From TrEMBL:
Active site: E272
The enzyme's E.C. designation: 1.2.1.39
Official protein name in the record: Phenylacetaldehyde dehydrogenase
Top-level EC class: oxidoreductase
Keyword flag Oxidoreductase: yes
InterPro entries per UniProt: Ald_DH/histidinol_DH, Ald_DH_C, Ald_DH_CS_CYS, Ald_DH_CS_GLU, Ald_DH_N, Aldehyde_DH_dom
Length: 499
């Protein structure tokens, strides 16, 4: 499937994946206590790319102890905020200097298009680091003119301080491994915390590289640690009493386990979880724009996007045009490895996940649903699923209700905007939604009624570091981005002075 334009992997990336990886603790690669190793695969070929440590509870304890010692020694929070900002900006510069290698490494390990790896995974992440670095110097409390009446004659002045919360555990999924690690890392560091990042066992490589670049930028040893591993490692981290805050991104079932473990220690936590996100297209849509929006929202990163559009509700007057237009494009999309910039659909992250998505599709076929695109096997090495468009789907079909996390669109007609609203909201999830219309009155009537943490209008999926992101309902607890990210990594202390 390669063509002349296929990216040639750099020598630096080839050398990196061949390393004998340990755990990144206390500013260096350390030998692990665990003797188990995890194989890391190239999703485009199914070949083993690298092996990493499958850390156990002893390894996790060591990483947390190092992060705690660095926090208690104030090697990071004790710096002037402007110095923390400068180091984080230097980290952004290093990411930029190594952008192509980081993008190639992510594509090799995750399977995604090199175009997305360059522009989003690395490019947007650099923007995010620079935005968050600026927060280091802008964390403020309040002064309070309090009215405490006794003892008579005493006056009081109170103020609040925003203090770094302590040692953070950042638990990361496999769909945007570098970007989501940084979503946790950089606001935590801007706030003065130390951190242990646990990448997904499928995609651990870029986190290990990030730790080296952060050290090079001047983040002191012990402030940013990486433990690689699977469920045991994640569970040990979530249950560790030395962790002050867990910032978790992943599936809703795992998020519930993390929240339950956290509460036992009163560890603070935020959960960014799954989604089954609707796109609602009203009668006045520009059909071409709506089709492009559904494609971008649904097939971006092979649909392995928590906020992906996967339920497409289209007003009956435009339904056929949109459904057929989507199907024509989906049927013509080219499949190929992420290193081929011309390939439009790339492999899913793992054989296991490909099989899960195939099972969702097989159930929809067994239910007799109407496939306009996809639903056929792929004769390529690697973990591919064809872009799939399923039409006229009844609202109670599993494919409309379950998070598939693959390139699968279910299209449903509606007659009235309020009917579309009811269908869109009738889901346990509430991460994101999009509305497609220029009918301002109807849009502004619907926006407040949509149960989702983000509502896009005439677009689906753009994010900005300053725009809060997180879920209603089973899609999570808490918000990332903007001032909310910083808020989540600080404790508020009230100080009351009698005078
Ligand atoms: P997952 O829940 O299986 O795993 C997420 C992380 O948790 C991994 O690092 C995993 O090793 C770790 N983990 C597993 N068991 C654990 C435990 N008991 N305690 C602590 N950690 C544990 O999710 P995934 O399959 O890696 O990612 C896909 C899911 O992530 C989808 O549901 C998707 O919607 C969600 N996601 C959400 C967002 C968001 O911002 N809301 C973003 C990306 C992905």
């Amino acid at each position: 499937m390669s063509n002349d334009a296929t990216v040639v992997v750099s020598d630096a990336v080839r050398a990196f994946v061949q390393r004998d990886f340990g755990l990144f603790i206390g500013g260096a690669q350390q030998r692990a206590h665990s003797e188990r190793r995890l194989d890391v695969f190239n999703p485009a070929s199914g070949e083993r790319l690298a092996t990493v440590v499958d850390a156990d509870a002893t390894d996790v304890d060591r990483a947390v102890s190092n992060a705690r010692a660095a926090f208690d020694a104030r090697v990071w929070s004790g710096l002037r905020p402007a110095d923390r900002e400068r180091i984080l900006l230097r980290f952004a510069d290093l990411l930029e200097a190594h952008a192509e290698d980081l993008a190639q490494l992510e594509t090799l390990n995750q399977g995604k298009s090199i175009n997305i790896a360059r522009a989003v995974e690395v490019g947007a992440t650099i923007e995010y680091v620079r935005y968050m670095a600026g927060w280091a110097t802008k964390i403020t409390g309040e002064t309070l003119d309090v009215s405490i009446p006794f003892p008579p004659g005493t006056r009081y002045t109170a103020f609040t301080r925003k203090e770094p919360i302590g040692v953070v555990a950042g638990i990361v999924p496999w769909n945007f491994p570098l970007m989501i690690a940084v979503w946790k890392l950089v606001p935590a560091l801007a706030a003065g915390c130390t951190i242990v990042i646990k990448p997904s066992p499928e995609t651990p490589l870029t986190a290990l590289r990030l730790a080296e670049l952060a050290l090079e930028a001047g983040v002191p040893a012990g402030v940013f640690n990486v433990v690689t591993g699977g469920r045991e490692c994640g569970a040990a981290l979530a249950a560790h009493p030395g962790i002050s805050k867990i910032s978790f991104t992943g599936s809703t079932p795992t998020g519930k386990l993390v929240g339950t473990a956290a509460v036992q220690n009163m560890t603070r936590f935020s959960l960014e979880l799954g989604g089954k996100n609707p796109a609602v297209m009203l009668a006045d849509i520009d059909v071409e724009q709506a089709i492009q929006g559904a494609l971008a929202g649904g097939f971006f990163n092979q649909g392995q996007v928590c906020a992906a559009a996967s339920r497409i509700y289209v007003h009956r007057s435009k339904y056929r045009q949109v459904a057929e237009g989507l199907a024509d494009i989906a049927n013509a999309m080219t499949l190929g490895p992420g290193l081929d910039p011309a390939a439009q659909i790339n492999p899913l992250v793992s054989a296991l996940h490909r099989d899960r998505v195939d099972q969702h599709i097989a159930r929809a076929q067994a239910a007799g649903l109407k496939f306009l695109a996809g639903g056929k096997p792929v004769d390529l090495p690697g973990y591919y699923v064809r872009p799939t468009v399923i039409a006229d789907v009844p609202h109670d079909a599993a494919i409309v209700r379950d998070e598939v996390f693959g390139p699968v669109l279910a299209i449903v007609p509606f007659d009235d905007p309020l009917e579309a609203l009811r269908l869109a909201n009738d889901s346990p999830y509430g991460l994101a939604a999009s509305l497609w219309s220029n009918d301002l009155k109807t849009v502004m009537n619907l926006v407040p009624q949509i149960e989702a943490g983000t509502v896009w209008v005439n677009c689906h999926v753009p994010l900005d570091p300053g725009m809060p992101f997180g879920g209603f309902k089973q899609s999570g607890i808490g918000r990332e981005f903007g001032k909310y990210a910083i808020e989540g990594f600080t404790e508020t202390k009230s100080v009351c002075i009698a005078h």
